[in-house]
């Protein structure tokens, strides 16, 4: 660093000596340490070298930042001493150096000032000497200005204007530098895409149509960048392959990211039409898993003719269902291609490209959110990559790791592997505990207690009732600590309390389970009623999958305790609510013909598909107890048919359904009973037929 320890006497002598050069030291021993314009050029080349960003450890990263701070301090001291550095023949070297260093320090306001000074300098030179080289210098300065201003809070519109001017100025140069024109234009288009995306975030409150317009434009720019990099890569220029592959991977990553943002923006506009659809008495036009309007004679075109008052509203109406720029599987494919490129690049420079690989894997997993069978291996690879990086960057990637374990837990709970779900929940809880701040995006108020309650439900499905009881008690205790601060937490206490009641039932304590479930029902309905006058978010018990499940349990317990009619009422109510919930757009199952046309859904992060078969079995047992064997058999058959779907399969429920069907068939001595018996005893789970009580109270069925 220049003049890091220059004596005070040297400073006085420097001010008094008019003949001394601006960069020369007073002491000859310090001559090698002085910052000169050439030294700044060397620093710039060092910082722009790709290998410079390949950090093996966190200490390497800190050393890199510290060295930049020292060099910046030396440069600033020269300016503070009035050395007139900007009046030198090559002030762009100092400005470029300060631009890089202030960006490294994330001082983007100051970096923007450096970029503006560079633009002023190069614009003056271009106006004095309008040669292609001067034009190129100005284009690059405008690109740097756009990149830095995009990271500020209040100058993002200027960022867009700067990159648009750079593209306009560069266009005449494309014929002069054909070999590199595609690459440079691709970089400009990519910068434009990020500038538009950054500016879009500040428009949400101010405008209705601009966020949608700018996101679509950003995606088009990113797609143009991908096309430019592909064209440059096809030229197969010597020594440029790796750099172009890295640029292409970055552009594909940008396309996937912006595509995800666009789909959420479109979904937000579609959701805003819900009140209109409800008012018209018709279904939503754009359900989350389809791209074409439903039938039944309702379209937004007919409704909106009377309600579109401005060109802005007309634009939103025309574009909110326009998927011409891509569907979610298109963006997932782009992310997958970027993953492949980063894998190849990581073999040449692991420290540089592996963090980027992990980021794209995380994005790909998010885009595959509706396809658990595809998302699970991607989540696992992303976790493995982040864990590998974290071995040298301890706690540096704890936030993405915590989010990935949450996603993996959700996907595994869909029924693909309940044993692995337990391990995933354990890891998710462990990583959540390491975070200083936790924001619950899934399953309630407190993430750790919600995950613990979720683990209890998984233990129930695996018939591990002791472990389920321990988890339910832990979750309840954690939530009780929060109740003193907020009565709203009472709503989330329902889940662990209901789990405890179910375990009481399964262990033969039916009366105690009935008392507990009735108490839970009263508390839930009271909260439901109170929410009508509350300023808080409205809570509807009939829309809560967990409440519906607990209502079904209450029906089964009532029937087992002798109140079959009351149990039937609760059971039918639970089945009816679950059918309605599964039929709503946010929870509707993906139809096979629409499997390739699914888009993002920001709701329904919890798995609920296995609940309906479970409720049907509980209701069937109650109906059998009342002697309504035909209706009971219909419910059993429906439950078994649903259980053929992988995500609806629950071993304990299926075993119980088969055993109950066997008992019903034995009444008529049907030939089907032997096959049912054989199928039932191939299932390892014990089931819970004995707890249902349908062999008592005169039902005529022996268990």
From TrEMBL:
TPR-type repeats, residues: 613-646
InterPro entries in the cross-refs: TPR-like_helical_dom_sf, TPR_rpt
Region Disordered: start-end pairs: 1-33
Listed Acidic residues bias regions: 11-33
Keywords: TPR repeat
Ligase among keywords: no
Compositionally biased region (Low complexity): 1-10
Coiled coil: none
Key word Coiled coil present: no
Name assigned to this protein: Anaphase-promoting complex subunit 5
The organism of origin for this protein: Tilletia laevis
